[in-house]
Amino acid sequence: MEVIAALINTPASTLLIFLGAIFIFIAIATIKKPIIIDIKPPSNRKLAFIVGVILIGAGIYLLTLQIPEQSPDTSVTATPIIESPTFTASPQPILSITDTPSPMSVSFFENDCINSDIWTPTPFSKSRKIAGNCWDLSDNGFKVADGNLFISIQNKPPVSGTMSMSVLETSSIKFDVKIDNFATGENNNLAFGVGTSDGWLTAGEFIFYRLTESKIYVVQGTSVVEYGRDTINNYKIGSVDTLEFQLNKLSFDIYLNGAKVASNLALPDSPFFWIGYRVAENAKINAVISNFSIQE
Asked: Whole-prediction pTM value?
């Protein structure tokens, strides 16, 4: 039974070649001196030889047919599988997105505009003209150009002006101040600080640039009408100061040129950041606020 099973499992090409070899062996081995079988007449030997050749040829033919099935040429089919992702995964869409990134921060004075969605002038300001979503506060001394806020007051009667914006309780407000001209009476000033929405520089904590008979002082105080509790520094005309207000939910700190000048100041609910001034008759002030940013 094992022999029969082995024969059944043997490929047909192998059996044909094996049988063909037997027939050829018989035909050749019995030509002169019979070794195994004496085949007569000689025509039978020729027939055995021919049958052997036919069987071997048939076996070889079947064997060649089996070669493609056992050893397929995978190089042809693998080529499109490997190369296809190279063309479809083109990096161009990624580059086109990263080459046009969205803005990372808001410009508070862009397009020569005091944005009415961000800033609110004092309710009793002399001018509250609005065009589109931009305030025109030129009569109040506020102008915008090249992304900077200019405060320009020339030979006017006593005047004051403010603009404010709501800020988060956890944020950092930072900007540069440069004063090119400051000629006004004593106790009149430029002011920057954090207060309430209706405080108008009278309820909160502020930094004042205040002119005396001899010098401009940087003062920290709670109201535009007071002298200020702490004199921080002297200011030199034409120099640039960097102010930063760091709000920490319940309190805030003030920095001048990187040095902390006031700390743990009480932060009101729903805080507002204020920019303003109060000057006397025939005042002359030219100042610019630049690099204004808020990091939340």
From this structure: 0.61
